Amino acid sequence: MRNIYLLVFFITLTFFANAQHSQTGSVKGIVKSSDGLPAEHINIALKGTTKGTVSNSNGEFEIRNIVPGNYTMIASFVGLLSVEQSVDVKAGESTTLPDMVLHENTSELNEVVITSIREGSYQAESSSLASKSPTPLKDIPQTVSYVTKELIQDQKAFRITDVVKNISGVNQESITGDLMIRGFATGSNVMINGLRISKGWTPTLISNLERVEVIKGANSALYGYADPGGTMNSVTKRPLDVAAQAFSISAGSFNTIRAEGDFTGAVNESKNVLYRVNLAYQDAGSFRDLQASKDILIAPSLSFLPSDKTRVDVDLIYSSINGRVDRGQPLLGGADGKGLLYSTPISLIATYSNSYNKEQGLSLLASLNHKFTDRVSFTTSFISYHYNRDYLEHRVNNAYGRDGAGNEMPTLVEMRLQRGTQENANFNSMSYFNVALQTGPVKHTILAGYDFARQTTPAGTWQTALAGAYRTADNTKALNSYNPAKASQYLLDKNGNPVPNMPHFDLANPNYTPQEITSYFTAVTPRDQTLYYTSGIYLQDQIKVGKLQVLLGLRKEFYSDFENYKKADEKKVTQTALIPRVGLVYGIAKNINLYSTYVEGFQPQTAGVIGDPDLYGGPFDPLTSNMIEFGAKSDWLSNRLTVTTAIYRIEQNNILVSALDANNPDLLTQRGQEVSKGFEVDINGKILPNLSVSANYAHNEATITKSDDPELVGKDKEYTPNNMGGIWLKYNVYNGMFSGAGVAFGGNYVAEQNTGQYGNITLPSYSVFNAALFYKIEKVKLSFNINNLTDKTYWLGRGRSSVTVNPGAPRNFMFSVGYTF
Predict the structure, then answer these.
(1) What is the distance between the alpha carbons of residues 592 and 634, in angstroms, rounded to a whole number?
(2) What is the pLDDT confidence band of residue 496, given thresholds at 50, 70 and 90?
(3) Which residues, if any, are the signal sequence (predicted)?
(4) Nearest in space to 110 (alpha carbons), one of 202, 213, 237, 23
(5) 602 touches 584 (CB < 8 A)
(6) 587 phi and psi angles, rounded to 5 deg
(7) pTM score
(8) Regarding beta strands 43-46 and 762-763, do their DSSP bridges make them parallel or antiparallel, or are they unpaired?
(9) CATH code assigned to 235-468+522-820
(10) Which bin fits 183, alpha (ψ -120 to 50), beta or left (φ > 0)?
């Protein structure tokens, strides 16, 4: 009897459910981005009701059980223009809407960061880096190159050094992340969301980045301190108003294991408080001996939008690195030419297994943007960054061991000991107004602002180093160098060779056994406290008259530094600069703009150098530069593809280079002048709706034009290949039995490099090819990446050492599984 009652109950329930369903209707459709591809995670809602959903990975959506009637369907996403569409819902019917297409909103409130989620796009349309206002890249009279998060993900890049191959004119000089832009080395400063900090020793993980930008040439007229070749800016991901979570795990060569998480959504129902949390972990070995590392990134962010006129963003970024410093592959002495590079295996490193390098960085960023009217807005932002490092390093001393007669022993390299702590704190803030005016046919976008930056090295940090290179005859101390004419002053071994304070590293019989550093003669010295601060006021006007745009900018910079800070002989050093900027843009066609620009750069030799003249030399004059650039920016294939071309000339003066002093490897001197001239091309976007491309080429000629050493004048600058280029193509299948599959292929070429005063050898040119396979099934994405397909042996640079070179990685692979929910 009980079963009969249950049967009647379910029949009744089914009847009422069907009756209810027959009295309602449903709506379905597809959302696409402006390039015609499916757009996922888009908010879909029926205006005036609580009903809504989110589009899936194919851009599809469906809302069911809708009471019949006329409604307005709205599709929205942060950073995109909302789209509304009327729909008539009928009882018992499913209504299919025409495709809804969303376009990027270039007037997004946050003027430093604009977020885009276009699936698979390698193209960015605007940037605030070059003008401190959201400006289409085509209207900026200066080259701004970039790498989007889609390209970062497709190439499985995990550090900045993994992505620079996609940017014209940028090459990696060392394993640890030293870069050259347009022939000039980048300094210790980088930018996060347009705010400057001093970077750490090792590049951190980049899972929290929306894109990486490089503005070519100095940008001192807006930001003050700037490298002459260009400035790299990391743009962080913004919180979204739709709930979305992504998680991936990866495993590959060199015992590498990675895990990444990206979680975002709204905190409240009104969706004016948004959050995002990016997490990343990597436990990786290396093709280099002893180079295992464990890395952590924790990056939560919060956005508050109290009204459609105000936005507040807060980011916290914590990074931790636990590994060793890689100074490169040591080479045998006495060999000539290219054979020298093959004298030791590329895996060899001159260090010991008790070496370590522990780094931690913590950044707090905040920005507020408020629109008073449609024409007047105000932005203020700051970053507070704290960095500390604890390390023990056994490293080469850029010299080979000496025998009793003072001759080099080519299989033995002198070693240095560095044990200590390092710490610095950065604070950088900027505040500015943007005002839009129109006087007759002339449109103005006026920028007026004030910036302040401060960097300190606090008390309490220290370093232990060897107190001399060779032991004295009584074995009670050590002398800086060996003089065979005074051999009796030195402790000699049974072969009559001087005994080093720290044993030489034997390249023929490498031994990584831990060393007891208490057996060396060492000296512990406190690191000097340092302080510098700088501020600037600036005014800029972007003028538009018909097809012509003119950018005029002027900045007054005030820099203060301290020699022997907090010592009895403390001396304040002040410098000022008036920095102009002029740019022109002219539209010769709807899709083509020509531009020209003149900028000047100003870069004080900061506290870390000027604060300890006994160690580094100096004080030094500021590094100054100027650049003239001409180019064209264009959009093709219905704005799917952008092409930027540029020719330039950069002159920099007062360059710091190593003095090559054997008794003081840290001693610096200034070179008079260097000039870099070149041509660049960047191509980004889609050739077809399902064929993406990122390509670049750069030709550069950098020469030394002034020097106290007349033999250097006219010679090529170090680590400046004349030609570089790269391409990455990705093809996706969106229909048919192979829907969800994809394949990518690319390669990079770097011409030969002269190492100049750092050993005077030529590093050979190289081409490296990479490939990837993808497959996406609903919420799961599989990928398989292979780098250096042909297993090419090559060298990135020499890292400013006359004894070591920096090899690139041999063939390696990475398999990843990602899940989005």
Answers:
(1) 4
(2) very high
(3) 1-19
(4) 237
(5) no
(6) -85, 105
(7) 0.86
(8) unpaired
(9) 2.40.170.20
(10) left
